[in-house]
Amino acid sequence: MSDEPTEPSDPDQEPAMRDETTPDEPKENIVHFNPWRDFNDAAPQIDVFGDEPDPEQIAQFMQVVFGYCDGLIPVRSFIDKGQGIDGRPHNIWLEADHSAPEKMATFATWASREGAAVYVIPGTVAAPGQAKATDILQMQTVVVDLDTGDIAAKRAHLERHLGAPSMVVESGGVTAEGQRKCHVWWALTEPAEGDDIARVCRLRGDIAAKVGGDMHFRSAHQPIRVAGSVYYKNNLKTQVRIVELNADRERDLAEFIEAVTDMPPAPGVSLQPAFTHPDKPVLDEVLVTPVREGAQDDWSRFEGASAAIGHFIRMVHEGRMTKDEGWIGICGYNAAMLRPQWPVERLKRESERLWELHVKKYGPPLIRLDSGAPGPVEMPAFTLGALLDDQSPMPEDIIAPRVLTPGGLLVLGGAPKVGKSDLLISWLVHMAAGVPFLGFTPPRPLRIFYLQAEIQYHYLRERLKQIALPPEVLAAARDTFVATPKLKMLLDNEGSVRVARAIRTAFPDAPPDILCVDPIRNLFDGGPDGGGENDNTAMMFFLKERVEVLRDHIDPDCGVILIHHTKKLSKHQVKEDPFLALSGASALRGFYTSGLILHRPDEDASERKLEIELRNGPALPSKLIDKVRGQWVEINPMNERLVRQDIGARHDAERDRKNQVVLGMIFDEAAEGRLYTATQFAEAFENQHDLGGRYSIRERLSVLATKGLIKFRRSFTEHGYAGTQSHFGYLVIRDMRFGRDPVIDTDTGEVLAEGVAVLPTHYKCPHSGRAREVENPSVWVYPEEVHD
């Protein structure tokens, strides 16, 4: 057991400063500390030859644990057990300022004369009397209490994976193996506040779990001994001493969380929770031993029922049982072991009370789905020879080539409004129809469940009708593509069960091939600490405890597609590594089997680029895609400008401007009663309107004629323009009119237009460049693939 106070119900442990489930202590137990107060008014007889408090070590401890903090430090002293003396605890609150070390040293000196230990909560609060977990405002350290087993090996494991600590304190106790118990501290670069305090506490619990430390430090209000104070226990008096100090060694919280996440458990440490307590009846005995009323047995009916209920509550909370199975277990114990039985009402009331306390202390439950697939009993491992000799065929891709493999996870990311939902729906419908899409190929029509939380029902059906999909694709996917309307839920315990039932209803005969979640943000459950999708720890919880559990419940071979948003990155960053744009990338990117990023290389262009990253197959080149006539198509990358893209785009824009100027001038000149051949137009407007010289203008006119934007009229004799020596004739553009004389309807007198319509007689063949006669002058026809 730890040297620190933990459970108030444990008679061998001193109570914490304030437990979450107990009422406030009497006010007379609170001492308002004055460093000049004389505490030496009734000192008991103690070992005067033992160690004394060390003000220098106390000052070093206070600097590491509270040096950056503001507020009040909760301090407590009480008589260590095993001395044969009694005494009430004393609580004080010290201001976290420059005077705190001196005041703490004075208090520790008084406590030493009283035979009392000194503890602090390693965080600050706002007001005297506060010491609950919810009262903690700032914490600037992460600590683990090593109080059992091979302490030296555990310290070595921590240093190997987390680096040297800021401080190591020997707490005074000794393990059964003869090693000194210790506290290992890491100082943070700045105090944690708000939601970060929960992250620190979760981190303390994770470290303790991986090295076999004291798990009580998951609670923010758990107190710990002050270095430099004196340890009294079982007739032993010794100093709580600092044995290693690297006060300048500080850690960034986010980076430290990643390091702890990557750290493996220490050798011999199991991450499976232990439910027994050495001071309590062994659980196996409790569950099989009848208990009679009147305390006739080794433990009472209340103790037995509480232990049994607590066991089943932990099983449900850890996801090993459903709530129904847990209640059945509680009722079974009541019926088989309690003599006489408790009434069902009392059993239910006690169960609900203990459940609330358990959830309050350990966070939301991690309930698994009712029939989740069990994990393997033994870890599989294969020799090199076995792997080389295995000639069995590879599993069939869900989406080839290796984009989505059986049991794989694909993440599609993109900025808002980039078109990822439109692309996704088109892609999924093609997969449901068994039709290739942008080079992605399904082996057959796939069963797809589209779990989306963005578009409401009526707008979802409108969007599906608006997306231009081939009729044969829509017909083939009518029954194999199932989508939800916008969901107002999280993919937590209850939400996972709802989704599993909906999938079973949608596909009663066979499980789906693909489960798609769109988007992560709207369904994200970050676990007990409630972190967001940018929190790597919360992201790992969501992926492992929600997505994987749901997939394994549906079908372990089911592929999962997650839709995620991206952060804003510069064009250079996107070019270097576009997958860094994924929010929560360090956890997410290391977890998925395939990653796709959709982005616009040029914000002014319609083309999108689809970047592809595969874990289970060879690299695939990125795809340049766009929507043409409402359908997504892949663009030949050979058509994409590779170098000097910005300069090229400016040249394109300048050519477009010149084209518009030339066409506008031909139209305006005709309205003024002037027609031109190509040569005469180039010579007349040379170096005007930034069009360049006459040869440049002739080239523009030739290009526009090839594209069908300019045609020709051989003569316009009725208005004084006879036939010309030009091979083509006078320049004509669409809807061009000559002059401004009004055109009047002879029947009604209405003015229909200004000027006379100029219709072409010839056009330039886009293939031969020769002049060809226009078949119908009233209908303006463009060459194939050229549009207005």
Automatic annotation (TrEMBL):
Residue ranges of the region described as Disordered:
1-30
Q: Basic and acidic residues: which segments have biased composition?
A: 15-30
> Where along the chain is composition biased (Acidic residues)?
1-13
> SUPFAM superfamilies under this entry?
P-loop containing nucleoside triphosphate hydrolases
Name the Pfam families on file: AAA_25 (PF13481)
The record's InterPro entries line, in alphabetical order, gives:
P-loop_NTPase
**UniProt-recorded name of the protein:** AAA family ATPase
